[in-house]
Design a protein that fits this description.
The complex is a heterodimer of chains A (about 325) and B (about 240). Chain A is mostly helical. Chain A is built from 14 helices and 2 strands. Chain A has a single domain, classed as ABC transporter involved in vitamin B12 uptake, BtuC, CATH 1.10.3470. In chain A, strand 1 and strand 2 form a beta hairpin. Chain B contains 9 helices and 2 strands. The chains are: A mainly alpha (about 325), B mainly alpha (about 240).
């Protein structure tokens, strides 16, 4: 009984962690690309990485925090334009190839040794060089607060403040997506996803709408990147292809083209992985599966889960099957 | 590791790889095609499969590099160019295989049928081509060739690890797109150009940029000539 209680407690801690919130925000951004506009962006991690770099480097150079966020957004905007302008006129799979390649370029340039002075090379940027101004914004008093079994510092690197801001942003973006999805703009995006030519025949500039969707999702991705690195550090290799694939898994698990799908998906993604890892560690003897292998085992299951989702339930948990027959 | 001679091991690897292609198609892709999954959905399924396999390799073999031959590689000097024996043999095999694959696509009946299926499966089926058989064949050959290239890459680099496949996947994308998707000799020319770029980048920029340059070139091609060097405009829709 104690075991189950402590297991549930550690799962709920994971569910509310800032990383989970960052993942949920990234998935909301990807949802605008993939769920609403039908854009196959396989480089979402690059938007996170650019947001994180833009923010961290600006603060290191002494900019105030709001300007630093602005820099992160501008960098992501530029990236979205560079990716979108040439490729959105071509068939959908070209965007996929270009985004995944561009994401790799960003990561490789970021970890390159000649940029060590700016990006910290493959070691990245440590958290304490940029999280000071963010913590200074906190209105909370110093000390620790315990609510149920959640016990954190009010202001520390990984405390209540980052959790409140992270989940506050999740709620804000969910509201934004909800409002957009029922606006004429959102309906047009869905129309483009279903049948581009039909929308074009109504006299709409499909190209421009796709670009707007790519930019909006990318900006949300950059914000996710900032939240992702605030409690830890900027690690170029921690935001690579696998991150994009995991964001996809989270999005498809919860349900693409829904408001709460990305959030539910991100929470379930982390909780299920921790559950698999913990159970494997505690119940499978280490002669069969050692500690390192339980981590890999959980990732193997992520891959299998992604396949099974697409095959058996492409609409995810919350989605509507009739609406979501996504095709490029 | 099992102590087999190298050539035999290579042949077995290629056969096993080809078999995985055959069974992949039978067990996964054919049922999914029948189910009517779209191209995007199939692409995401392949991503899921690659995540699962990649971590399965890491699960069983760890993250360290596995060496194929322990001996120091011998080098030979041909026309003033000193390279390892493995590199020369790999180059020879590559040229032969690439020319054979190109001729297969252009000259044989099955090859022509393959190109027909790629252009328009429904029309190909209507003209009496067994589309499923062709796709199964393509999966088998492609997986076999992938296995062969894995063996050669492992020998040339003298080591394989769980990330090897993903590292090279995007370069392959770049090479094929550069040459022109759906063209017989595009892959050959594209690979040569991308390979040269990757290696020559070292002369101008630090080593960690070599893959980045190749990918940048891929993006530039897609911007200005998305059909690649040999491709035709109407294919890219």
């Amino acid at each position: 009984m104690d075991y189950i209680v402590s297991l549930l407690q550690s799962l709920s801690v994971q569910a509310l962690a800032p990383t989970t919130a960052a993942f949920a925000i990234a998935a909301i951004g990807l949802n605008i690309h993939f769920g609403f506009a039908g854009l196959l962006n396989i480089g979402q991690a690059a938007f996170l990485l650019l947001g994180a770099y833009g923010f961290a480097i600006s603060i290191e150079r002494g900019l105030p925090i709001f300007l630093a966020v602005l820099v992160a957004l501008i960098v992501a905007l530029a990236f979205a334009l560079i990716l979108g302008l040439p490729t959105l006129k071509l068939r959908g799979d070209y965007l996929a190839i270009v985004t995944i390649s561009a994401a790799e370029i960003i990561r490789m340039v970021g970890r390159s040794s000649i940029l060590t002075d700016v990006t910290g090379g493959s070691n990245g940027i440590t958290g304490n060089t940029y999280n000071g101004p963010f913590n200074a914004l906190s209105p909370l008093p110093d000390g620790t607060t315990q609510i149920l079994w959640f016990n954190y510092d009010n202001n520390g690197v990984n405390g209540w403040w980052i959790r409140i801001v992270g989940w506050g942003l999740v709620a804000l973006f969910a509201l934004l997506v909800w409002a957009l999805a029922r606006s004429p703009w959102g309906r047009l995006l869905k129309g483009i996803r279903e049948d581009e030519d039909a929308v074009r025949s109504l006299g709409k500039n499909v190209y421009s709408y796709k670009l707007q969707a790519l930019i909006l999702g990318g900006l949300i991705g950059a914000i996710a990147g900032i939240i992702y690195v605030l409690p830890s550090s900027v690690q170029p290799d921690g935001l690579g292809r696998s991150t994009t694939f995991f964001i996809y898994t989270a999005l498809l698990l919860g349900g693409a083209a829904t408001v709460f799908g990305p959030i539910l998906g991100a929470i379930l993604f982390f909780v299920m992985r921790l559950l698999v890892q913990t159970l494997a560690q505690d119940f499978i003897p280490s002669s069969i599966m050692n500690g390192q292998q339980t981590v890999q085992f959980s990732y193997v299951l992520v891959g299998v889960a992604l396949m099974c989702l697409i095959i058996f339930r492409p609409q995810g948990i919350l989605g509507n099957k009739r609406e979501l027959s996504f095709s490029v | 590791m099992l102590g087999l001679p190298l050539i035999l091991a290579a042949v077995i690897t290629v056969v096993i790889s080809a078999a995985t292609g055959f069974f992949q198609d039978q067990l996964i892709w054919k049922p999914l095609r029948k189910k009517g999954l779209s191209l995007t959905q199939l692409m995401i399924v392949t991503i899921g499969l690659s995540i699962a396999l990649q971590y399965a390799f890491q699960y069983f073999y760890g993250a360290a590099t596995v060496r194929i031959s322990i001996a120091n590689p011998k080098t030979v000097d041909i026309g003033g160019v000193v390279l390892t024996v493995q590199s020369y043999v790999a180059m020879g095999i590559s040229v032969v295989v690439l020319v054979l694959a190109g001729l297969f696509l252009l000259k044989t009946r099955t090859g022509r049928a393959t190109r027909a299926v790629s252009d328009n499966p429904a029309l190909a089926a209507a003209s009496g081509i067994d589309v499923d058989r062709i796709i199964r064949l393509v999966w088998t050959i492609a997986a076999g060739l992938a296995g062969l290239s894995g063996v050669m890459l492992g020998l040339v680099l003298n080591g394989v690890n769980w990330e090897l496949g993903l590292q090279i996947l995007l370069l392959i994308f770049a090479a094929v797109t550069l040459g022109g998707l759906g063209t017989a000799f595009g892959a050959l020319v594209g690979s040569l150009i991308v390979g040269m770029i990757v290696e020559l980048t070292n002369l101008v920029l630090p080593g960690d940029f070599k893959y980045a340059t190749a990918l940048l070139i891929l993006i530039i091609i897609l911007m200005f000539r998305p059909q690649g060097i040999f491709g035709r405009r109407e294919r890219i829709g």
